[in-house]
Amino acid sequence: MKNYFVTAGLNSVGIIMGPGLGQMMARWIMTGNPQCDITGVNMARLHPFQNNPEYRRHRTVESLGMVYQCHYPYLSMKTARGARKSAIYERLKSKGAYFRDVSGWEGADWFAPTPQQAAIENMPGAGSPGSSSGRRNTGPPGKRGAHGYVIHAQIPGPGKRQRQGA
After folding, report:
1. To 5 degrees, how large is the angle CA 94–CA 100–CA 106?
2. Model confidence, pTM
3. 111 has which bridge partners?
């Protein structure tokens, strides 16, 4: 629809982004050009599978609950999963794949010895978020997951600056 502009769905981040979005929208309405990259707020960035009330109901609650939490690199969204699976999903699952949400796709991130062990709690050295062990992903250095993440690296405690498996 021509000359129809909407700024909505910004949740708590909208308070912070409000002045900048207001300026961008005013420029866009007045000149026909937002004069900045709108990719992060453009409705066209969403996929058809996300236009589902059940998906949005579950994912929105989880997303808002995570806004101010610590974001650990090995954690993945838990709700609204399984919207997209590749032709080899079941094969990867049978081989012990642990899946992450990757733009709606179930992407194999790392492999456990058995399918029953493919849980984040069983990832070597993952520990629990916020644990004081100072270790994450321990094991032989250099092995990488499907998306290039180092899945077996020792991260030393505070004050030590070394990295294995990079």
Report:
1. 60
2. 0.54
3. 97
Instruction: Compute how many other C-beta atoms are within 10 angstroms of the C-beta atom of residue 107.
Output: 21
**Beta-bridge partner residues of 70:** none
Q: State how far the Cα of 157 lies from the Cα of 137, in Å rounded to an integer.
A: 13
Question: What is the amino acid identity at position 61?
Answer: V
Per-residue pLDDT reduced to its tens digit, 4-36: 888 877 766 777 888 888 999 999 999 999 999
Q: Tens digits of per-residue pLDDT, 65-86?
A: 887 788 777 778 888 898 899 9
- Quote the pLDDT of residue 10: 72
The beta-carbon contacts of 104-110 under 8 Å, at least 24 apart in sequence, are 104/47, 104/49, 104/50, 106/81, 106/82, 107/146, 107/147, 108/145, 108/146, 109/76, 109/145, 109/146, 109/147, 109/149, 109/151, 110/145, 110/146, 110/149, 110/151
Distance in angstroms (rounded) separating the CA atoms of residues 127 and 85: 28
Cα–Cα distance for residue pair 82/89, rounded to 1 Å: 10
Residue type (1 letter), 113: P
* Residue spans of alpha helices (H) in 6-162: 13-31, 53-66, 89-94
